[in-house]
Design goal:
The chain is α/β, with parallel strands linked by helices and 492 residues long. The chain has 2 domains: 224 residues, Rossmann fold, CATH 3.40.50.300; 242 residues, Rossmann fold (3-Layer(aba) Sandwich). Helices cover 53% and strands 12% of the residues.
């Protein structure tokens, strides 16, 4: 059974009260320091119903500035929540830098509700949780997890007391009584989850809820101690010296798949219109079937500037029902996005079941732009591949059709299109000095893309390289690949 974590408590009631008052003062000061240093904090308050979780959260809130402290209750299983992956809600509600977020009943509470209660499904969801907490830790978050523990007998007694109170009777729900009846089974589930996820970077503390005031004191004491350690660690950190990480090997660049363009990848103008119309008509039909079968679809576009991403996206979306898709252009992150983990903005764009999310540039900027421009450390670059694989695995495990297109283009054709844009007043807005500067780094982008394909192209989330020298061929190729994978998903 679950074992309670005991905080050493010594002294008279007066001395304990004085220590509690001191802890309240300290946590208020710590909150201001956390905000100054930009440390995000995640606190999970899990445990048995009627164990006193609400009282503990109330005690925490007393000394804190409410402008920088948010409490999220257990999310209702609405259409929006049920039709997205388990961690969607928690990614999108993760704290910004310098903010404290508390979850009253967390994602752990959802595991055995979401899964088919078989070992494989449960293990998958637990792995997703571990990946989330690891990403948060790498982002600099402090993660503190509390399980408020009471015995089956104590829980039953408290539920009976609630039922006998005319004002509070509504709080003893049918769900609470079912939990009490299945106490041993649920305790075993929590034992397993805590054992699998009790990590040094995201520790669990099992607190006895028998005395609610004492439990609140213990939780407060642990939080204060851990925040003080986090502040010391942050203040001792030295800013890393950043520099470009991608070195060009001319031989490898020449041998790259991105330089193996095929002149026969051409569609005559006379054939293009009937083919594209036929493909677009079928795509509209499949969109309806995707909606009926509740299949989420994510289509990502990367590639060289002027490679045809915009043109392909326009043809993909032309005949779709606009209520069923959204296009996300991935420009430089906003201040709000910079205040969160780098994957946060992409989790906000994850489609619900039956809908399409289309990305013009993607999360792959982390392993394309940033290492080339010297915007990340070597460790961040290497870890990004793991984070991307786990992000995409969570999506595909959920049933998402995930397609990633690299819109390829030869050096000569890119130069011709750049010059054409500069001469055409209607297209001049498409060409900037940044585009010309990026063109000078083609070798670096080839090297980075080759590594990216090798690390992140999987059976369920493949990279599809499209020859974009002929725009008509590229557009039909993209839609034909989408059709192929959608047919497969629908038939499955």
């Amino acid at each position: 059974m679950l074992k309670d974590y005991e905080v050493s408590i010594e002294g008279t009631k007066k001395e304990i009260k004085e220590e509690r008052d001191n802890l309240r003062f300290r946590i208020g000061a710590l909150q201001r320091k956390i905000r100054e240093l930009g440390i995000p904090v995640i606190i999970l308050i899990d445990g048995w119903n009627s164990a006193g979780k609400g009282n503990i959260i109330n005690e925490l809130m007393i000394p804190l500035d409410p402008r920088n402290f948010i409490v999220y209750n257990e999310p209702r299983q609405t259409h929006e929540i049920r039709n997205r992956p388990l961690m969607y809600y928690y990614w999108t509600h993760s704290p910004a830098k310098g903010q404290i977020v508390t979850f009253d009943s967390s994602y752990y509470e959802q595991v055995y509700r979401r899964s088919k209660v078989d070992d494989v499904s449960v293990k998958k969801l637990i792995n997703q949780i571990v990946d989330y907490e690891n990403s948060m830790y790498l982002n600099g978050d402090v993660i503190l997890k509390f399980f408020i523990n009471i015995s089956q007998k104590t829980q039953k007694k408290r539920l009976e007391q609630l039922e006998n109170d005319p004002i509070a009777a509504f709080r003893a729900s049918k769900k609470d009584w079912q939990e009490n009846e299945n106490y041993d089974k649920i305790a075993a589930q929590w034992e397993f989850m805590i054992g699998e996820t009790n990590k040094e970077d995201a520790p669990w503390y099992v607190i006895s809820g028998k005395d609610s005031k004492l439990a609140a004191f213990q939780v407060l004491k642990i939080i204060v101690e851990q925040l003080e350690q986090a502040i010391k660690k942050k203040e001792s950190e030295k800013l890393p010296k950043l520099h470009p990480l991608i070195k060009v090997n001319e031989k490898q660049v020449k041998q790259s798949v991105l330089n193996q363009l095929f002149p026969e990848d051409v569609i005559p103008r006379s054939l293009y219109k009937p083919i594209i119309k036929e493909y677009q008509a079928e795509l509209r039909e499949l969109e309806f079937m995707v909606f009926r079968r509740r299949i989420p679809v994510m289509i990502a576009f990367e590639g060289f500037d002027a490679g045809g991403k915009g043109g392909a996206i326009k043809r993909v979306a032309k005949n779709l029902d606009p209520r069923g898709y959204r296009v996300y252009p991935s420009s430089a992150p906003t201040d709000v996005e910079k205040a969160h983990d780098w994957l946060w903005r992409y989790w906000n764009a994850v489609p619900k079941r039956g809908h399409f999310s289309i990305f013009d540039r993607t999360w792959y900027g982390r392993v394309l732009v940033e290492p080339i421009e010297g915007l990340c450390t070597e460790a961040e670059y290497e870890e990004a591949f793991n984070q991307i694989r786990e992000f995409e695995k969570q999506l595909t495990d959920f049933g998402t059709v995930l397609l990633k297109f690299w819109m390829n283009i030869s050096d000569e054709e890119q130069k011709r299109r750049f010059e054409e844009r500069e001469k055409n007043p209607e297209k001049q807005w498409k060409i900037t000095e940044e585009d010309w500067r990026n063109r000078e780094k083609r070798g670096e982008y080839v090297m980075a893309a080759e590594r990216m394909f090798e690390e992140t192209s999987t059976k369920k989330a493949p990279w599809i390289i499209v020859n974009g020298d002929d725009k008509r061929y590229a557009r039909t190729k993209v839609i034909s690949e989408i059709l192929k994978y959608l047919r497969k998903a629908i038939n499955k």
